[in-house]
Amino acid sequence: MADTTKPTWQRWLWLVGIWVASVAALGAVSWLFRVLMQAAGFQS
Hints:
Layout: H1 8-39
Protein name: Cyanide insensitive terminal oxidase, subunit III
Keywords: Membrane, Transmembrane, Transmembrane helix
Organism: Salinivibrio costicola subsp. alcaliphilus
């Protein structure tokens, strides 16, 4: 079988992309909770 390992830079790019997506998703959930809490009358 041929060695199909991807280049190091491509693996790093995937890692950084997944990390950025997870941080963005966490930020979106956090923002949504904040909006819902303010709608319910809680203020920070």
